[in-house]
Amino acid sequence: LQTVGCMPPPVSSAVILTKAVGGNEAAAIFNSAFGSFLGIVITPLLLLLFLGSSSSVPFTSIFSQLFMTVVVPLIIGQIVRRYIKDWLERKKPPFGAISSCVLLMIIYTTFCDTFANPNIDLDKFSLIIIVFIIFSIQMSFMFLTFLFSTRNNSTFTPADTVAIVFCSTHKSLTLGIPMLKIVFAGYEHLSLISVPLLIYHPAQILLGSLLVPTIKSWMVSRQKALKLTRQPKAPVKV
Questions:
Q1: Among residues 41, 47, 203, 190, which one has the least CA distance to residue 121?
Q2: Rounded distance, CA 65 to CA 81, Å?
Q3: What distance in Å separates the CA atoms of residue 160 and residue 73, rounded to the nearest whole number?
Q4: Residues 36, 172 contacting (CB under 8 angstroms)
Q5: Would you say 109 and 174 are in contact if contact means Cβ atoms under 8 Å apart?
Q6: Within a domain: residue 235?
Q7: Are 168 and 32 in contact (CB under 8 A)?
Q8: Which end of the chain is more exposed for a tag (fewer CB within 10 A), N or C?
Q9: End-to-end distance of the chain based on CA atoms, in angstroms?
Q10: What residues form the membrane-spanning segments (predicted)?
């Protein structure tokens, strides 16, 4: 669970859910992009701090591998996009479907690697307890962030609240698993500490999708109420 807490925000899921509700999509995109870049440095440091490490940890090797795995592909993609932008806008490749398939494959292969490890030492009852704890944590965090962003002296709009609820509670599997494999390469219990993150990511998408209609209804009603309160009152004729 500490491993999950150290993970950076996801690149897409929070943005997709925020857009589905009609929230502040720009804020969600900025949070996801900025948080992912910060995670390249902060996440390995937090993992080594909370999960323990020795003085022999190869920091240079860890950050160089993270740079090659995460940053370099992103930079190459941005450079290539400048030259093929017009072609992409004409052809409109199904990047959404492709990214979803790749993410599904990452989740599937990671699950296979995790539970195929004979040293995982995780019984069914413990797995059920982990699932229950993770769903409880997500619901609690979403409720707390909702209360925080809607308090009386808050300056956040309903659209901002939607972005806050999703972005502040989501964790990235696509960045998290490579980081764990790099930071804890050769660690015999790597599969065990990966299990909560493997459950958290699909759970956040499932829970968020189920809450989209409810949150959207709240946001629309809240926006209408704010518009009514801000409208100037008509003068009373005597």
A1: 190
A2: 24
A3: 31
A4: yes
A5: no
A6: no
A7: no
A8: C
A9: 67
A10: 28-50, 62-83, 95-116, 128-149, 161-184, 190-212
- Flag whether 237 is in a domain: no
Helices (H), the chain: 2-6, 13-21, 25-51, 59-66, 72-91, 95-115, 124-149, 158-167, 173-183, 190-230
Residue type (1 letter), 52? G
Q: How far apart are CA 107 and CA 174, in angstroms?
A: 8
CB-based burial of residue 200 (10 Å sphere; 0-12 exposed, 13-18 middle, 19+ buried)? buried
In a domain, 229, yes or no: no
Domain count for the chain, please give it.
Answer: 1
Domain annotation covers residue 156: yes
Which domain CATH number covers 159?
A: 1.20.1530.20
Six-digit token string for 54: 């020795």
What residues make up the domain containing 39? 1-212
36-62 pLDDT per residue, tens: 888 878 888 888 787 765 445 566 766
Q: Concatenated DSSP letters for 119-188?
A: T----HHHHHHHHHHHHHHHHHHHHHHHHHHTSTT----HHHHHHHHHHTT---HHHHHHHHHHHTTT-T
**pLDDT tens for each residue of 120-139:** 667 788 888 989 999 999 99
pTM higher than 0.90: no
24 neighbors 159 (Cβ within 8 angstroms): yes
